[in-house]
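Our consortium's second objective concerns turning raw sequence data into structural hypotheses that experimental partners can test. To show how far this objective has progressed, the report includes one record in full. It was chosen at random from the queue rather than selected for favorable results. The single chain below, 552 residues long, was entered without modification.
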Amino acid sequence: MIVDPISAFVPVAPDADWEAIRGQIAADVAASAPQWTDHNPSDPGITLAEGIAASLADGHYRVAETMFGAWPLASHGYLDQNERHWHAVLPQGADLGALAEALAALPGDAERAVRAAASRPDAVAAIAGGLASAPVAVRADVVTVLRSRLVRQLALEHADIIGDAVAGADAAGTAATTLAERDALATARLALALPLWDEELAALVRRERGMLAGETMTASAPRIVAVATAQDATDVVQSLEEHGLTAEQAELSLALSPLPATLLPEDLEREGGATKVWPPHGIQALTCEPVTALDYARRARSHPQVGRAWAMPGRLGGVAWHGLPVLDPDDLGAADPHMAWAKDPAAAAVTVVVDRVNGADGEPDLAADQTFLRAVLAIAVSSEVYSPFPTWRDDMDPLDPRRVVCDEVGATLLRRLGVTLRATLIVAVTADSAVLKANVRSAVATFFAQGRPESRTALAAMDVVDGPWPPTPQPALGWNPGEAIRFTEVVERIVSAPDVLGVEDLWLQLDGYAEVPASAGQVVLPKDAIPVLAEHDCLTVNYAKQGGCADA
């Protein structure tokens, strides 16, 4: 028999192996953090970086090498738990603590007695003395564990007999015979040759069917990979079913293509997000736990008191990823360890800026704000915000996302900064200055409230991808935090008011900041703030003498 030699994985761009990714990370570290001088393997940061490189390389390998034998049918994850039988190391859903105690209490000859039993009730009766203190629900699991070694042994030693029984049942069947009927015939034939219970023989037949399904799928690989339309997919699935695959196996076989034309990530996952195939297909990376800034913002918007949310670069304030308040660096010494999560707009971090709606009225309440932000962050990132640095837990909800390695995500409240207008308005001699000023203020205030139209279009285009959580699109209207105020756009709104012919000596001033002249072109806003028109202004009126363009 000719066996293909084992060879190393040679990635083709854009895929990369561990060494290439490690080298890129090292180069980025050297360029972006010159103060980090110890790049030896003993440095903890380098150890973390190499671990991340290994995870990334594994992802590259999975995407590039999905064509190994029988994948995606090699894993039995697509089977219902009650159909997996001895494929699982331990019975699915078993009380492992009670099971271990029950096994430890059994006498040394218990396995032999269970092997000799003619049925499961007989096996339970044979070791009833040792199971007297075990819960009733655990007793069947004890028998399954004690029988598993026998089932595995016979499956390996008599693979030829099992294969002949399945092939003979197929040969004896007619076109009208169903797959279930042929499998029942194969199970009956095996009962004459192997000392196993009917449920165990049926499991061996399912195992053989699984291997045959993998071979059929592999033989059809060129046709599966070539699927480009929904009709192609229907034809391939029908053909695979005609050759002995179940409907679910035939559907999963379409995942052989690196970019399946008809499959969505949800088609390869159970409710709750558990994958049916292993390793997961590359397209499933699109619906994993949050990994992008947009993901964090979408999750935050699912909080009932969050109207809009954005994920902005930098550590801006509010609360940090561990739930503690973000501190002001001016209040800390240079060597204070709290500087690690002090405010720093240039930090390699992400801050979810949230616009709170239906909040408490009255004076600001710092404690209440921090409680609210922790609740938002627990949704956007994970419940780790209430219990940082947890040990591994297997009781996490499938939709409770966790931070990606090295992601630092905080949350802060959206600020509204008042904008004071100072300008001279060139107006017609017939204009009422009081009404005109009110119209100008209304036009600018509406502009700030509704936001820039082109920004809304760009935002909508970025927010079309959903994760495995309910979609929470960004509301259309409103200014985006950190977006600059352009003087040309302010002038456009001012002259839209009736009787305004032009603007002279225009200045804008944000609350707490210096006044900015129109010659600067724009006013830059902090990343966590949006503009609102201040209650006062410095608008003056200059009546035009001629009413011509020269007066504007």
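The partners drew two points from this record. Residues 416-551 form one domain. The longest strand covers residues 415-427. Both points have been shared with the crystallography group to help prioritize constructs.
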